[in-house]
Amino acid sequence: MTTVIDGNEIGDQITEGVAECTETLVNEGVTPGLATVLMSDDGASETYVSMKQQACAEIGIEGYHYELDADEPAETLFATIDDLNADPAVHGILVQMPVPDHVDKREVLERIDPMKDVDGFHPENVGRLVSGNARYKPCTPHGVQKILAKTGIETEGKDAVVVGRSDIVGKPMANLLIQYGSGGNATATVCHSRTDDLAAKTRDADIVIAAAGVPEMIDGSMLTEGTTVIDVGINRVDADTEKGYELVGDVDFESAKAKADAITPVPGGVGPLTIAMLMYNTVKAASLQSGVDVTLP
Ligand code: NDP
Fold first, then answer.
1. Are 278 and 139 in contact (CB under 8 A)?
2. pLDDT tens, 6-56?
3. Banded model confidence at residue 208, pLDDT cuts 50, 70, 90
4. What are the φ and ψ backbone dihedral angles of 292, each rounded to 5 degrees?
5. Where in the sequence numbering do the catalytic residues fall?
6. 7, 21, 73, 174: which sits with the fewest CB atoms below 10 Å from its CB?
7. 65 - beta bridge partners?
8. Per-residue pLDDT averaged across 253-270, rounded?
9. CATH class held by domain 139-270
10. What are the two backbone dihedrals, phi and then psi, of residue 66, each rounded to the nearest 5 degrees?
11. 3-state secondary structure of 123
12. 3-state class of 261 per DSSP?
C-alpha cells in the first residue's frame, strides 16, 4: 500500500507547536511580528501573502502588511525594508517574490537584516545553512524535511534526487539532505534542465524530490518500486473548472503512486508545510531577538 502523505495534518501539528511557543513568548511580553511586503500585481503573489497573513492571525503572530505599486522605484522598497529592519515590533520580514524587473532581487535579499530574514535567503543565512549551522532554514525545503521525519522516512544512507536547482528550493533542499545528523546524512544528487538522462537518475533514487515547475514531468516510468516521492511543484494548468485552471504538481500522481512507497499530493502535500515553517521561523526570530527561549516543534 502506498502512503499518501497528508501535508495538511503534518502542517497542523507543527502549527500547533508553533502556536504554543507564541503563547510562551506573549506571556513574556514578546508578541512575534511578521511583516510582509508585496510589490507586484500578480494574483498568485497576492494569494500567497494573504495566506501567510491569515496563518499569522490564527497563531497569534502580529502581522504587518505593506503594498507598493509595481512601478515604484526600487528605493521605495529599500526604504520600507530599512524601516522594518529598525522596528523592534517586527521580528521577521518577507518580501514576496518575484519583485518587478527593475528591482534587483539580490539587493532586496541583502537589504533585509539577517536576523529578520525568516525566508533564509540572505547570503549570511545561506552560508550558515551550507556550513551546517543554520539560523533560518528556507521554509519549503525545511517543510520537506519535516514531512520526511514525521512520516518516519529515514534519510541517512539514502540516495536522494532533487529535481531543480533554484536558490529557494533545490539548492537548500540538497544542502539540508547532506548535513550531518537527523534529516540529513543522505547522498544527494541535484538535477536540472541540463541534466542528461534524468530518468536514469530518478530510477536510482530512494527519495525523489521534484521542484522543477514543470507540470507532471515525473511519471511512474521514471521511478523504481518503493521510492518516496515528494512533489514540491505547484503549477496552474488550464482546466474546465470555475477558476479556469487547476493546480498540479511536477509529478504525474497516479502513475507515480503505483510505484511509490509514499507520495505527497498536490495540493495538500508540501504547500501547507511552507507556511507552517514560515511561522516557525518567525517565532524563532522573536525568540532569538528577545532572548526568551522556546522549544520549537
Ligand atoms: P525555478 O523555476 O526557480 O527553478 C526550477 C528548476 O527546475 C531549475 O533549476 C530548472 O533548471 C529545473 N528544471 C526546469 N525544467 C526542468 C526539466 N525539464 N528537467 C529537469 N529540471 C528542470 O522554480 P522554484 O524552485 O522556485 O519552484 C519549483 C516548483 O516548486 C514550482 O512549481 C513552484 O511553484 C513550486 N514551489 C512550491 C512551493 C510550495 O510551497 N510547495 C514553494 C516554492 C516553489 P535550470 O536551473 O537549468 O533552469
1. yes
2. 999 999 999 999 999 999 999 999 999 999 999 999 988 999 999 999 999
3. very high
4. -90, 120
5. 52, 96, 119
6. 73
7. 36
8. 98
9. alpha beta
10. -125, 135
11. helix
12. coil
What distance in Å separates the CA atoms of residue 201 and residue 159, rounded to the nearest whole number?
10
Q: How far is the CA of 213 from the centre of ligand 1 (A)?
A: 4
Instruction: Return the CATH class of domain 27-114.
Output: alpha beta
The residues near 104 (Cβ < 8 Å, ≥ 6 apart) are 74
Q: Which helix or strand (DSSP H or E) is residue 245 part of?
A: strand 245-248
Contact 214, 230 (CB under 8 A): no
| Cell numbers linked to 74 | 526600487
Q: What is the pLDDT of residue 64?
A: 98
Which of the four pLDDT bands, split at 50, 70 and 90, describes residue 101? Answer: very high
pLDDT mean across residues, the chain: 98
The residue among 226, 230, 167 whose CA lies nearest residue 218 is 230
d(C-alpha 141, C-alpha 151), whole Å = 15
Output the residue whose Cα is nearest ligand 1's atom 3. Answer: 166
> Which residues, 6+ apart, have CB-to-CB distance to 212 below 8 Å?
163, 164, 193, 233, 250
Residue at 283: amino acid letter: V
Q: Collapsing DSSP states into helix, strand and coil, what is residue 149?
A: helix
CA atoms within a 13 Å half-sphere pointing along the CA-CB vector of 227: 30
**What is the C-alpha separation between 124 and 121, in angstroms, rounded?**
8
Whose C-alpha lies nearest to ligand 1, atom 8? 164
166 lines ligand 1 (CB under 6 A): yes
Between the CA of 234 and the centroid of ligand 1 the distance, in Å, is 9
H or E segment and range at residue 175: helix 170-178
Would you say the CATH fold of 139-270 matches that of 27-114? yes
Can you tell me the distance from the alpha carbon of 180 to that of 267, in angstroms, rounded to the nearest whole number?
31
- Domain layout of the chain by residue ranges: 27-114, 139-270
